[in-house]
Amino acid sequence: MSGTNDNTGSAYTFFAVSDLTPKVTTWDPTKGLIHSRVSNWDGTCNSTDPSGCVAGAIVTATSKLHPDAAVPYTILYTSGSSTTSDGKFYILNVDEGDYVAVSASSPGWGFQTRTYVTHANSVSENQVKGTALPVVAANASNSGTGPLATLTATETSGTFSGSIKYTNDLSDPTSSPTVHSFFESSPSSPLVLPLSSGNTTLKYYACNSHNICGNVGTSSYSVYSVAANESGTGSGTLSSSTTGVSCSSGTSCSGNLLGGTSAVITAAAAPGSTLSSWSGCTSVSGNQCNLTVSSNSTVTATFTPSVQNLLTTYAQGAGSGSVSSNPGGISYSYPAANTGSATLASVALTANANTGSTATWSGSCDSTTGNGSATATCSISSMNVPKTATATFSPLSCGNEIVSIAGTSYYYDTIHEAFFGVNADGQSIRMQAVDITESPNYAGSNSINLQGGFDCNYGSNSGFTTIHGIMTFGGGSVTVENVIVQ
User: What is the pTM of this model?
Assistant: First the structure.
């Protein structure tokens, strides 16, 4: 006689005692017997085909009638202390009407919990099924759209079909309210996640279609920005052979890469230029920059003209100053000298005017800055032919005389003349930021201020006045500011 329990759906069968005692000699026929197998959920486990039976499983049981008993009933196997290749186990002498929850354990496997309702002189037979624990493999790679993490779930006991659950906020995915879930129908359709700049930690596990869940795995990744630029007065192009780093118009490259991966940027000089150097690279091989990414990185290729020619500079004008070049080769002071030359591929020229003068460049300059001021520059990017440039030094031109008394409308050509205009203590004689050649003599009795370095409008004195001569003070007192006496 056989049937199905109304409450649990577990199967049971009534046997004659003579049929069972050869198998279980210690069974009390007034009690119930659980006689079943531990099997692979996705396989077949019976006496005809035991291929799906699980060997090495240890069966555990809990009892509703005996909740405090660690081992409420005797558990036997075909032999030994765990299931053999037939997967069989026996739970003996179960009390009438007891609910017995049975599961199994085996390294790398997960099993359902099967509940049996037992009856006297009857045998319950439904199998305890399980699968190998799903395993999630995490791999990261660079892509054209940025670094990606790929999570693939597999199980050794069959083809995985189920869900991958993960978090990216360091929380436990088995309990976190921020857990994400992704259904993977097969290993050919894994979970692919874009990785943002900075540090990302993924925690993940998988549950198959039988709700057998694997262990939690953790993978951490770092993503850094990579940039490549060019500099110098020459020209060329940049290209990348690294997935994830792209180059725009051949002059700059950018992208995000996984930490620990490598980038290769190649520089190609244009005709008439040469690649003179790389900076920021882990190593350089010819025209290639090799970068091992461990932080946000920028590399720079410097191009310089490959053709050199003679550059001749001239200085002229009624003012004075100095001329210099970068790279070096030209350096002189005007009017002591009025020309200098050097053979160069490219150059930046600087004219520094002395106090009271301004500087202006003209000639073969590709660009200039500061013309008409104290410092002017001339840039020549390519010396493909011999070239010339001229620095003109002009006296600083102001509408007023170079000396005045503050608070008055009086202006003077010399300091000595201004001394005669002082008639009270505390008056200030102001001088423009020019060179003055005289030897002034103050013989008055007042306390005065002698202030140099003013602009043409006497609004501020951020410069200096240079007096070439001897200053004599025969009376009173003088406070001096921004004045150089030579």
Answer: 0.60
